[in-house]
């Protein structure tokens, strides 16, 4: 998620052309911030903040240096260029509960994988299914169920890929079969959608809830579930059906027996697994119990005012205690620190953009360029969603795209009297369902690498899921959300 990409021909020093271009563009933006002309209607502070924002953005997009480095540079420049009075004011984003909550959630997710609890759940898929179509439906159900406990879509994809490969062999299917293509589309494109149902379901949901809390009003864990579970399940279900139709998943072939013939008598051949689930039963029961208690605490806390970060911190503490040792030093090292630093830096930059009037200036400038006042309400929403999709295509993680796009979109919503909570949830649904380029979503990237999918498959089905998300957004906005908001 935070690793450096090296697409394109390499230049001396190991840099790709996009990375070299990113460094050049970053240097130009820095020069503009230092000595460039101030745009009409803006102050020097606004010019410098815009320069830092664009510098950080281009470094995050091209990744010539790790996210941690570019994020630290962006925050430092806010202070060095004088747009923040103190370094503490420049780094306010790192004081956000979102940063710590995301860190705790990553540790909890890793603990589920480290003891093999996710694989044990996934292995249930191997019992008793007859046809590829039936197994495909079971796969979808298990992915959706596991999303409640494993926030990372990437972790879920990695868990199920070996099982899908084993099932392909068991059915005696050739490479690139409809079942295999459908399963990998499900794990890559549809799987991340499941993470949006719960506020604690992953980085995109966490970022969205934090920005809504900071800019609109607080949203509790239970309220989020009420608002998002039905649209998410609808979108996940439509995506599952679309992937099966897109790949023509077979509903006739039965599980192959040892001699290569179809299974008969209603009994499927035992498929087994390539390796047993990691971790002891005791560890798995312990992690399952802690996670169950954590989810219960989130639900109860929504009614009594306990912040969601508190149960997460308590769960990590329990799993780190001597004698338990499920979470250790190595687990902390393996956290995706790059995305944690990126989100903290972007929140810091957004705070400074807000305090200096830069966001208002951007909205006013874009309003002069796009005749929002002449557009109907639904057209304004469509333009804002298109803006969010455009930003999303540039980023390798949905959470990073949302942390950049959503505050700007909400500023427009405030200016043109658009309901901000439905708009924020709509941005999440559309951004979370849109994967046009393989690197846009890590689950898609690993699915394309391990499976039979081509770039054309990724782009074509990404457009399908984006269209489905727009349909679900329209139905939710017009029918469901007015009933519960």
Any descriptors?
disordered N terminus; mainly alpha; 68% helix; SLC13A/DASS
- The fraction of residues in strands falls at under 5%
Taken in chain order, the helices and strands follow as: HHHHHHHHHHHHHHHHHHHHH
Percent helix range: 55-70%
According to DSSP, the number of beta strands is 0
Largest sheet: none
The secondary-structure class comes to mainly alpha
- Which stretches are poorly predicted, pLDDT < 50 over at least 5 residues? 1-6, 256-277
Cα-atom radius of gyration? 23 Å
Helical run tally: 21
Separation, N- and C-terminal Cα atoms: 34 Å
Shape: globular
Overall mean pLDDT stands at: 83
Task: Tell me about this structure.
It comes from Haloarcula salina. It is found in: Membrane. One of its GO terms (cellular component) is plasma membrane. One of its GO terms (molecular function) is transmembrane transporter activity. Keywords: Membrane, Transmembrane, Transmembrane helix. The protein has a domain at about 1-90. It is globular, with a radius of gyration of 23 Å. The two termini are about 35 Å apart. It is built from 21 helices and no strands. It has about 475 residues and is an all-alpha fold.
SSE layout and pairing:
Layout: H1 17-35, H2 44-62, H3 67-80, H4 87-90, H5 97-114, H6 117-123, H7 132-146, H8 153-171, H9 178-190, H10 203-215, H11 221-247, H12 281-304, H13 309-320, H14 329-333, H15 337-355, H16 358-369, H17 377-394, H18 398-415, H19 420-433, H20 442-450, H21 455-484
Helix pairs in contact: 1-2, 2-3, 2-15, 3-15, 5-10, 5-13, 5-15, 6-8, 7-9, 7-11, 8-9, 8-20, 9-11, 9-20, 10-18, 10-19, 11-21, 12-13, 15-18, 16-18, 17-18, 17-19, 18-19, 19-21
């Amino acid at each position: 998620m935070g690793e450096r990409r090296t697409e394109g021909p390499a230049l001396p020093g190991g840099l790709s052309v996009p990375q070299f271009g990113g460094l050049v563009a970053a240097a130009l933006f820095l020069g503009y911030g230092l000595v460039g002309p101030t745009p009409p209607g803006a102050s020097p502070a606004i010019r410098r903040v815009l320069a830092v924002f664009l510098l950080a953005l281009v470094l995050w997009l091209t990744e010539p240096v790790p996210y941690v480095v570019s994020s630290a540079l962006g925050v430092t420049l806010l202070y060095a260029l004088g747009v923040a009075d103190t370094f503490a004011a420049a780094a306010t984003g790192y004081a956000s509960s979102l940063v710590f909550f995301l860190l705790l959630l990553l540790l909890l997710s890793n603990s589920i994988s480290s003891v093999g609890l996710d694989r044990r759940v996934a292995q249930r898929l191997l019992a008793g299914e007859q046809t590829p179509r039936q197994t495909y439906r079971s796969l979808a159900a298990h992915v959706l169920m596991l999303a409640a406990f494993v926030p990372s879509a990437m972790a879920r994809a990695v868990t199920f890929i070996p099982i899908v490969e084993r099932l392909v062999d068991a059915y005696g299917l050739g490479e690139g079969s409809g079942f295999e293509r459908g399963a990998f589309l499900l794990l890559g494109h549809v799987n991340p959608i499941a993470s949006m149902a719960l506020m604690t379901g992953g980085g995109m949901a966490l970022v969205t809830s934090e920005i809504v809390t900071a800019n609109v009003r607080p949203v509790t864990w239970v309220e989020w579930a009420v608002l998002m579970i039905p649209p998410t399940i609808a979108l996940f279900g439509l995506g599952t059906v679309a992937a099966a139709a897109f790949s023509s998943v077979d509903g006739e072939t039965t599980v192959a027996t040892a001699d290569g013939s179809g299974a008969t008598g209603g009994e499927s051949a035992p498929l087994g697994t390539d390796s047993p689930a990691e971790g002891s039963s005791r560890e798995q029961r312990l992690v399952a119990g802690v996670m169950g208690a954590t989810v219960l605490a989130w639900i109860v806390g929504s009614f009594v005012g306990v912040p969601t970060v508190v149960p997460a911190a308590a769960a990590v503490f329990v799993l780190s205690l001597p004698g338990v040792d499920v979470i250790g030093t190595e687990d902390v090292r393996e956290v995706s620190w790059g995305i944690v630093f990126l989100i903290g830096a972007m929140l810091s930059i957004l705070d400074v953009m807000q305090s200096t009037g830069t966001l208002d200036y951007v909205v006013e400038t874009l309003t002069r360029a796009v005749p929002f006042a002449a557009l109907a309400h639904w057209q304004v929403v469509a333009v804002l969603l298109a803006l969010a999709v455009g930003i999303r295509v540039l980023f390798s993680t949905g959470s990073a795209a949302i942390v950049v796009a959503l505050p700007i979109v909400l500023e427009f919503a405030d200016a043109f009297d658009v309901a901000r909570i439905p708009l924020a949830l709509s941005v999440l649904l559309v951004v979370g369902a849109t994967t046009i380029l393989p690197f846009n979503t890590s689950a898609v990237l690993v699915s394309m690498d391990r499976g039979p999918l081509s770039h054309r498959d990724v782009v074509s089905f990404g457009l399908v899921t984006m269209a489905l998300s727009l349909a679900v957004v329209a139905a939710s906005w017009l029918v469901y959300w007015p009933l519960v908001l």
